[in-house]
Design brief:
By secondary structure, the protein is mainly beta. The chain contains no helices and 13 strands. Strand 8 (110-121) and strand 9 form a beta hairpin. The radius of gyration is 20 Å and the shape is globular.
Amino acid sequence: FLARHRVGLTDSLTAGGRLELAPDLASGGPIVTARLPFGEVEVATAASIGGRGPGAALSVGYTYAGQHVGLGGVVRLVSDEYTTLGLSARDDRAVLDTNAFVAIPLAARTTLTLQHTYASFRDRGHEQRISGFVNHTLSRRVGVFLEASHTRQRSFRPVTGVFAGLSYFFDNGTTVNVSHEQRDSTGTS
């Protein structure tokens, strides 16, 4: 069983919650989103019982979307025992996960986004990723994108990657993507 519900209490405050149930699992908690004078903040908490016993999670995020800049970030904390329908107690998980971004319009139809993520995993250690993403709209139906990233993990050598693609948007809501990813010497299309 999986249920989610959100309701706008005022123009500036939305509250909701999530509940997941299985024969050996119960997980859920409240979510509150508040509009601020500049941006919005969202706080979500959760508790679970299953697998290895009780667990907990907390997420705090902030986003701002302005005409000349967009920015935001999120910090998530998850206990070693926290479980959901998609995350068993045995699965490795980021016990600390942070993400920060800034998006800047470079031209009328071109946006640059810079992002930094850091995660500390229960089993495999730390991971850090820095990336830059450029999105350009060629026409109402066609867009191109390019992403460059550099990832460092505790027990592995750093990996640099480039991801490029083209999107075509049909009137019926369907999108077709063609892309190529290059990670060091390995490429996939």
